[in-house]
Amino acid sequence: MEDLNTRDRRGYTVFLALFTVKSINKKYSIPKSNTKILKLSSLRRRVALAAMSCDPEERFTFFWKSRSPFSQFHPSPFHGKPLYCTTPEDSVGYTFAHCEQWMMFNKAKLFQDEESARKILAETQPEGCKALGRKVKGFIDILWKQENESIVKAGNRLKFTQNPDLMRELMQTDGTTLAEASPFDRVYGIGLSAENPMARFRVNWRGQNLLGEILTGLREELKAEGYGPGPVSQAGSASK
């Protein structure tokens, strides 16, 4: 049974949800005769129901696009060895411009497509790396689903441990769940924009938020290893 404080917080969450959607009505001055009001009324009910079923304690750090330090596209040079070494050069490692390049390079290595791997390594723009990754030969969906989270996590560990400023940004999200608020991505993102009032309640997310969950778990691991907010300590230096 919920204690009084929990019920109070949940009640406040419901109130906030209803107020948010009511504000949408007011902001856009939608007349009651307009059919769109029916959709907003339905949205209001859905938000309220979601609020009652959500965890009132959970808070989120929403992010999206390359300007965010948590994006796979964010410029963040780091050095590392691929998870799947298939050539002598792999044992030395490479410098990657961002996590998208790391992810797609490892995707090519996983499926032993050396030609695509070379092209991805030579491509510095994240959009280009993503496009090349979609053309990897020998792709097997079930194998990719088994391995992709490990690839993304390993790349982000290298990214944050080798970039102290980004590490500070990550640690400042402590106490929240990171969520990629992409309205277009239902695998790595939540399938909703941060501006959508439905995004405030996990139960309404249309995507799996794989990237956000990976980053949240990684942050907790790094905290346990001695990393923390503010200037990176000697124990949490890039050389670790």
TrEMBL record:
Gene3D superfamilies per the UniProt record, alphabetical: YbiA-like
NCBIfam families hit by this protein: ribofla_fusion (TIGR02464)
Natural source organism: Orchesella cincta
InterPro entries noted in UniProt: NADAR, YbiA-like_sf
Origin superkingdom: Eukaryota
First and last residue of the signal peptide: none
Protein name (record): NADAR domain-containing protein
CDD domains reported for this sequence: NADAR (cd15457)
Pfam families, sorted: NADAR (PF08719)
